[in-house]
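ENTRY TYPE: paired fold submission
RECORD: A
CONTENT: sequence, then structure tokens
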Amino acid sequence: MMKIAEVFHPPEDALWRMVKQCGVDHVVGSFGGAWDKDRTPGEAPWSYGPLKRLKQAYENGGFELAVIESRPPMNKIKLGLPGRKEEIENVIELIRNMGKLKIPVWCYEWMAGFNWQRTDKAIPSRGGALVTGFDINDVPENSLTEFGVVSEEALWTNLGFFLRKIVPIAEEANVKLAMHPDDPPLSPVRGIGRIMRSIENYQRLLDLVPSPVNGIALCQGNFTLMTDDLPGAIRHFGGQKKIFFVHFRDVKGTPQQFVETFHDDGQTDMAECMRAYRDIGYHGVCRPDHVPTMEGDNNDRPGYSSIGRLFAIGYIKGLIDAVYSE
């Protein structure tokens, strides 16, 4: 059965307690931050000691660390720039340490230059809740001059080089590599190509370096913008045992123009998606992502409101109970 996880940093706070009160026992972790007072100067947050303390901090709060959704710097790897060897060595250190600590999944991405993009982070939604959105018409046309124009084929070449170095390490460490999609799944954006943006490209990823550890972080908000049949995509990749991690969320619109939504108010049949996960035998974690900011909360962290998470957890728990009892 699919398990629900949430994402937050140590130390324990009101959000930790609320999530535990909801019956959530798994966490998606991010390394780094000022909480780790024992990290020595110059010690990387992906080193063994800091990762061990991170895992212990979550376990002390009653959570199992199921996924690391944080990365060392990787831009030189993606762009094929001098210094990528050192960045790859840092990724290797992270994966080996995750293996030693039995942290099973690393969620990474291949967005060069900049990460997920929104053009508005306070769009009024149902009942006045605030959501984020994207409109390509509001994106500057100029390229990011420090990188110049980056082609999709260059990104594929660099991804192949990276996977051929990393996959054998991940196999040895028994750590699964879950590739997160481009957000939005659109190319190019400001002159930078994006390749993790279609069902076909995800299959190309899996075929690029075939391995039991080379797989997918299926972020539904992005995948539903790639296909009119998201449950079919779940079955396609799940049938290959390639879905390692799920972001359970929804949107309305197209890759060029969309808004985030409440889990029960988007364009996707969420119950059919849950049935697809059930049918493929997915037993990993999902986490709510990019939730609306609701009444009584602030919009300091758009997409990560505590009350919005509360709604999402309850919705997903109900969906799991209903679908798995059919």
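RECORD: B
CONTENT: sequence, then structure tokens
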Amino acid sequence: MKHQDDLEGIQLTVDAAAKALSEAKRVTVLTGAGVSKESGIPTFRDAQTGIWAEFNPEELATPEGFLANPPLVWKWYDFRRKLLGDAKPNPGHYALVELEKYVPKVTIVTQNIDGLHQKAGSSDVVELHGSITRFHCFDNQHEAKDVPYELEEPPSCHCGSMIRPAVVWFGEALPSKAFTRGVTECEFSQVILVVGTSALVQPAASLPMAGYNRGAKIIDVNPETNPVTQISFLSLMGPSGEMLPKVVAVLAKRKGQS
């Protein structure tokens, strides 16, 4: 009986989420590592296995670590790109693409650096932490194109600076343009989906509150409770690859009947 009650409770929450989305003209989706993990992509710390287990994040993902040992950091990111391998978007990614059919404006603001939202087909993606497949130079941020991955050490930019991955390292500020866009989208959205993120890493963790303070309904889609749960209009406790398709399926029915 309890199992049946749980299922009914989930369905009621799914229905309520679909109703909120059906009434929204603007939706922002904040995504984190949990979404990528459902595609088999290990988190930063999960990837620190084998020879990489002996290093700490300060050695692998900070400006100081890069300057101290450029080949080490270059090889670490080459290793992580290989981990992406044939990783494919999961049902959660595709549900967010489907969402665009039913909401006039959907913006994905992601902390992920794997590009899977774009690969799935989302049309408006803001990358807060950059992309593991792009590069720029360390000193002047000149964009670097056609950089071979499998090198023993970083190549040089035309300005003489070392090329580095175009990702945000620990201790670095988020790109101001991307973060400002994230704040703006949250402030003007009627619904904010917080998906697959612990909502602990600042300043990205401040984005849900930016929308909440302007009256947005927060829908938390995560397997576990987190700091956003307490300000959420609804909480869908489960993997995004299971929960989001259910919500979008109900939304599609609602829109078909309207």
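NOTES ON RECORD B: Strands lie at 26-31, 105-110, 125-127, 130-137, 143-144, 163-167, 191-195, 217-222, 234-237. Residues 1-5 have pLDDT under 50 and may be disordered.
STATUS: closed
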